[in-house]
Specification:
The chain is mainly beta and about 675 residues long. It has a single domain (about 1-25, about 35-670), classed as 8 Propeller (Methanol Dehydrogenase, Chain A), CATH 2.140.10. Helix content is about 5%, strand content about 30%. It is built from four helices and 41 strands. The protein has a five-stranded antiparallel β-sheet with strand order 1-6-5-4-3, with no helix packed on it. It has a four-stranded antiparallel β-sheet with strand order 2-41-40-39, with no helix packed on it. The longest helix has 10 residues, at about 430-440. The radius of gyration is 23 Å and the shape is globular.
């Protein structure tokens, strides 16, 4: 648990901002008389999503449509976790998803190994690093290390950086030196599992997303393994701590216990043994209302729920809790008795909008299933009606799917919902015939149709739709921008091998991997395979939709066809500025899976599929016109951010971590 620190002149120029103040939530929440959110990100980027509204918006405009095509790499910073890869069988190289913060003239970033670094924003020089050696204490909860960033707090000129680690600790670091703060917890460390309502295996739980700081409270979620499901997996309770001392303040229990609201939605006392239902992604907060918004995930296990009959509150829900007490104020459940791994994967966006002349403090939650749920963030009431509609019943023994699911009437879905033969690739009759032949024996499920005992496929898949990259919101225009992918999940549920699970069925993950590729390595469905959908949240209407990425137009099977941009089925992360919408895309999902598939996809197919030029895209946010594709050295793995340093605007994001060293890349004008 050592930190090496180097003083640098830029650290002496720290100029910390104003003190965050939280307004406690009263029994009677105030009506939104005036729409005034937090300041938009400008020269600084102090929160993972730009601000605690998670809008991913900056008012900077030095880079605009007239010069965006001139962006070039200003500097590269190599993650120290890359040096650990050889020692740890490559585990630290899997996905580098960090989004740095920029405060007081310094960048602060995490690594896949839960290390933290302070970085000069104009040169990429390392100023200090902190090494928690979390990998010595526990294996990663999902078998590979993932980490998305750090959190920041300051008061009266004294700043702290917080990081959650892969062995489930919360660490407070001095902003200037990188040393653990001795007055926080136990010499700078808090064990996030201490006092949890039941003992857990530290190898099954981690912190992969930045905690959320709201005033003098810091709130932590957790990443919990969802492979090889068994009972008594770690509970996904959300926990809060005093930002100065590390004292435990409250827990929000995501699976209500006996006597608590919602407990009756867990039949046969399943509330005692089921785990997960965690907040593994980022959160948002409204300081004026005193509310923090928790997007929750699926309970154990993702595709079979015969051991947890009932609606299963507060799984796959958006829950608003009092930031001072942890008490539930309201909740909205998007999926009853989830069977599709449709967890909420991104922070809800707090959006101040005007609907039919009425100002509304809203919250917009994008989802894997392709919906945008828009609610009044003070009360949880839908801005536009959300209807409970009948859905198919389950045919799996012991299972009982929910008879209805909620469907927003507005906005329209941003993804295809339901999978049928009509959705299959049809560039040529040969490709379509190959797809049909390859899918023989696999049931194509309608939207919200439950899994079956036969192999099945469904859209949107478990990876989205939208995923952890989320969406971006323009507070000046009321526009919401949602990147999404069309990539079906193909799965089967099978009895577990003896001694591996006490559930009747579990999902067959190798089977899922084996069906990553469609005919001749092309995607399974018709294009576009990724898109950006722009909504006017004041009206709930779609303004424009554009493909994201060129797509496989150069594939030999498509030779001679005059095709538009097709989009790559790779998840995109948005960044919004005064005039532009930027999207950075991950490696293609099958590119990420390639090393795991091995012989199942074949080396030739793997080479062909990964032979594409990674890009960082700039759109005119008003029209959707693609203005520039900026060449970058490797795939874009994180949500981008922007800041101003020494009079120059920079855009920074993470690349690599799988096929190349993990790095941060900074773009700027010449």
């Amino acid at each position: 648990m050592r930190s090496s620190s180097i003083r640098h002149p830029i650290l002496d120029r720290l100029a910390l901002g104003s003190i965050l103040v939280v307004v406690a939530c009263s029994d009677s929440l105030p009506a939104p008389a005036e729409l005034a959110g937090p300041p938009t990100a400008g020269a600084e980027w102090p929160v993972y999503g730009g601000d605690i509204f998670s809008r991913k918006y900056s008012s900077l405009d030095q880079i605009d449509r007239t010069n965006v095509d001139q962006l070039r790499v200003a500097w590269r910073w190599r993650s120290p976790a890359s040096d650990l890869a050889a020692k740890e069988s490559g585990a630290f190289r899997f996905v580098y998803e960090t989004t740095p913060l920029f405060v007081g003239g310094v960048l602060y970033a995490s690594t896949t190994a839960s290390q933290v670094a302070a970085i000069d924003p104009t040169t990429g020089e390392t100023l200090w690093t902190f090494e928690p050696r979390s990998y010595d204490a526990a294996d990663p909860s999902h078998g590979l290390y993932i980490h998305r960033g750090v959190s920041y707090w300051e008061e009266e000129g004294r700043g702290r950086i917080f990081v959650g680690t892969s062995d489930a600790r919360l660490v407070a670091l001095d902003l200037i030196t990188g040393e653990p703060m001795g007055d926080f917890g136990d010499e700078g460390f808090v064990d996030l599992l201490a006092g949890l309502r039941r003992p857990v295996d530290r190898d099954h739980i981690a912190i992969s997303s930045p905690p959320l700081v709201v005033g003098d409270v810091i709130i932590t979620g957790s990443s919990i393994t969802d492979v090889d499901p068994t009972s008594l997996r770690p509970p996904g309770d959300v926990r809060a701590w005093d930002v100065r001392t590390g004292e435990h303040l409250w827990d929000f229990v995501t699976i209500p216990q006996e006597g608590e609201f919602g407990n009756e939605t867990w039949e046969q006392d399943s509330w005692q043994t089921v785990g997960n239902t965690n907040v593994w992604t980022t959160m948002s907060a409204d300081e004026e209302l005193g509310l923090v918004y928790l997007p929750t995930s699926t309970p154990t296990n993702d595709w079979y729920g015969g051991h947890r009959l009932g609606d299963n509150l507060f799984a796959e829900s958006l829950v608003a809790v009092n930031v001072q007490t942890g008490e539930r104020v309201w909740h909205f459940q998007a999926v009853h008795h989830g069977l599709w791994d449709y967890d909420f994967a991104s922070a809800p966006i707090l959006a101040d909008i005007v609907v039919d002349g009425r100002p509304i403090k809203a919250v917009a939650q994008v989802s894997k299933q392709g919906f945008v749920y828009v609610l009044d963030r003070a009360t949880g009431e839908p801005v536009w009606p959300i209807e409970e509609r009948p859905v198919p019943a389950s045919t799996v023994p012991g299972e009982r799917a929910a008879p209805t699911q909620p469907f927003p009437t507005k906005p329209a879905p941003f993804e295809r919902q339901g999978f049928s033969v009509d959705d299959l690739i049809d560039f040529t009759p040969e490709l379509r015939a190959q797809a049909i032949e390859m899918l023989e024996g696999i049931q194509l499920l309608g939207f919200f149709e439950p899994p079956t005992l036969e192999p099945f496929a469904y859209l949107p898949g478990a990876l989205g739709g939208a995923n952890w990259h989320g969406a971006a919101f323009d507070p000046e225009t009321g526009m919401l921008y949602v990147p999404s992918i069309t990539w079906p999940t193909m799965m089967r549920i099978v009895p577990p091998e003896e001694g591996t699970s006490d559930y009747r069925y579990e999902h067959d993950f190798p089977y899922f991997l084996s069906l990553a590729l469609g005919p001749q390595g092309l995607p399974w469905t018709k294009p576009p395979y990724a898109r950006v959908t722009a909504y006017d949240l004041n009206t709930g209407e779609v303004e424009w939709v554009e493909p994201l990425g060129e797509g496989p137009r150069g594939h030999p099977a498509l030779s001679g066809l005059d095709l538009p941009r097709l989009g790559w089925p790779q998840r995109g992360a948005p960044l919004l500025t005064k005039t532009l919408l930027f999207i950075g895309q991950e490696a293609r999902n099958w590119m990420r899976l390639g090393p795991l598939l091995g012989e199942e996809i074949g080396e030739a197919d793997a080479r062909e599929l990964t032979d594409f030029a990674p890009g960082f895209y700039a759109y005119d946010k008003a029209t959707g016109e693609l203005l520039a594709t900026i060449d970058v050295p490797s795939n874009v793995m994180s949500a981008p951010m922007t800041y101003m340093a020494d009079g120059k605007q920079y855009i920074v994001f993470a690349i690599g971590g799988l096929e190349a060293d993990a790095e941060l890349i900074a773009l700027s004008l010449p």
